[in-house]
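Good morning C.,

I know you're traveling, so I'll keep this short. The sequence:
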Amino acid sequence: MIYKLLVFLFISLPLLADETPKEIYSNEETKPIALPEFTDIQGKAMNTYSKEAPSLFSPQTPTPSRFFAADLSMPDVFATTNNLAKKTGSFYRAFGEVIFVQGTITDSFGVPIQNAVVEIWQTNAAGKYHTLLEPNSEYIDRFFSMSGRAISDNIGNYHFITIMPGGTAGRSPHINMNIYHPKFGKLETEMYFENHPFNKSDYQYLAYSHEEQKLLTASVHHSDILNPQSIKLCTFNIVLQGVHQYKKF
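The tokens, ready to paste straight into the viewer:
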């Protein structure tokens, strides 16, 4: 009798196991899985199936060209140093406030541009261009190199040591710039200084749109935020129009 009962249980239990899941889940409704909501940096809804490219990949606005053509102040020959505050071999530096100008040169999509030539020229601390003065003028600073040249490194950085240019004839202090690169051509532009009071009365600066003014204005910070007498760092990034080809190795 016990033997027959064990045989019956052995045969019937697998059949009951097969039927139980069907009875439990056969009447349950199937519900779609809700995908989590994601937003981009601008707060727009997006998901993994979105075909819209993120705004981070939008081209950057190129640095505007100089509104007015370069005048007679541009030197015929540029000095080959990036230190305008002290001539090569001189024991003395130029008169005025020493500043450090730095920045990065990139293409329209932020790729650094190497070997771009940056030429600058500016007024001395008295607001005078040496090229427009007589050789014996008392306004010439003998220790100041009015022009200079730098070449961007492998990550697009460039820098100059110079002095804060003086304002001249209705103009705010600014630095004139020419940027050359064989793949991007030549850009003639100028750099202004953030929050300088003369910007509001410079007719050339005011000729630019508000967005162009922002692109042509360098941020100014002290190298030591705890020391207001420390050297000023003027950061002026440059965007050249076009796309740089990636290197092949």
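Safe travels,
E.
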